[in-house]
Amino acid sequence: MSIRKNTSLPHLWQKLLPWSLPLALVVLWQIAAQTGWLSSRVLPAPLDVLKAFWTLAVSGELWRHVLVSAQRALSGFAIGGGLGLLLGLATGSWKRVETLLDTTVQMIRNIPPLALIPLVILWFGIDETAKLFLVSLGVFFPVYINTFHGIRSVDAGLIEMGRSYGLRGWALYRDIILPGALPSILVGVRFSLGFMWVILIVAETISAQEGIGYMTMNAREFLMTDVVLVGILLYALLGKLADLLARSLERVWLSWHPNYQTR
Amino acid sequence: MYFSPEENSKVSAAERVINGAAVTLRGIGKAFGDRQVLHGIDLDIRPGEFVAIVGRSGCGKSTLLRLLAGLDQASEGELSIDGSADDVRIMFQEARLLPWKRVLDNVSLGLTPAFRRRAREVLARVGLADRERDWPSQLSGGQRQRIALSRALVHSPRLLLLDEPLGALDALTRIEMQQLIESLWLEQGFTAILVTHDVQEAVALADRVLLIEDGAIALDLDVRLARPRERASNGFSAYEARILSRVLSAPPIESSAASTDAWTPGIAHISFAI
Predict the structure, then answer these.
(1) Residues 164-223 of chain B whose Cβ lies under 8 A from any Cβ of chain A
(2) ipTM > 0.90 (yes/no)
């Protein structure tokens, strides 16, 4: 994609180059913490964060929290994303369903899910259901809107061609409408995977006995900034992991698309 | 790989087996809202005949083809094709291949896996057997139209409708495609109806050229030339000149048609505005 003028740059060096700036920052940060310029109350040294990570990992506590958080995130994603997909397919495919539902969905969409927290606590208390509800709600809309849009933007000429070649009902859906909508649906999935963590972080910091959010809030109480940082880094890593997953889905399912073909 | 013209004369017009469908139109009319696009069309097409429909932009020729394909319903009149909907296949101006299916899967669209062998055979016939694993985005415009043609032919249609399928191709590819379509038509004996804005293409391929003007048939001319047709011959030029002068004698239907003219007259052939 990018125009490379300097082809003499070795391949490995080119791969490392994007990481050189973060690496330099971390080194600078370590020096600042060690010489006492930076109080550990503000930011602990990178090595201390690593140590905290190691201790938590060895004791198994870290994995318990990660597992709980991942479970919450994924089940929320499955419920909200699944519903968004189904409803998006329905409103995209049938004009009547759109007339019935779309106005309502568009109204609810403009309420930030986090604004519902007081209500959610009243409804579900502070246990798992509340977190599941919030994540599902946050994930629902990106998937719904992109699915709806994807179905609507399928080339009408291809649908007409399919009909004239005898495709009806499910066959038309499977061969033309769904694959045609897939690029847009995957955009929704990728967007909602990012949003999923944002919602979960907030939901877990309100009230929880387990999970990464609980771990960081608990550490804050005891001024353990190193553990707080471990939690923040974990969110970053998990977010990156979810994005990689979405990208590989795109690479497999959209391998026909000129944009995703190996150059 | 390109289609070689030598294969062209596999079957001569005389020894051709005809299994095409007959088409009958009686008083066919079509209106979109207040606008009457077609009116009073009476037409009999014999089984196995190759008919070309020419006319200026907006004359209703594509609408007529869409009625025959069952993509639109006529507002009035009777249309009958002696066959089922499965006997009729249409080829569009754009190839309309599914970008998410590989070439072979595009050709065998709507068929059971048992037909994949037949799909391979037809692909080989249009000279693209080695591209069956490719995505449509990896093919040229001419190759895509050949895939679209084989997709139509896998169904062994008895009536093949062609809606300006060669309009977007360059002059050389277009002549190659015309030869391919002619030889397949000779081999398989289907009825063919071709809508085109290219009078030379119509004379090169058709047994009969229809001119549509203001939504009605203005000229119905049999082309009595032996196949394969020699474009440089006097007879060919005479037919071409006669049809062209008839087309140009009538004033344009839409004044805007000329301004949207994407097709400039060339040396080798003269085209109308689409």
Answers:
(1) none
(2) no
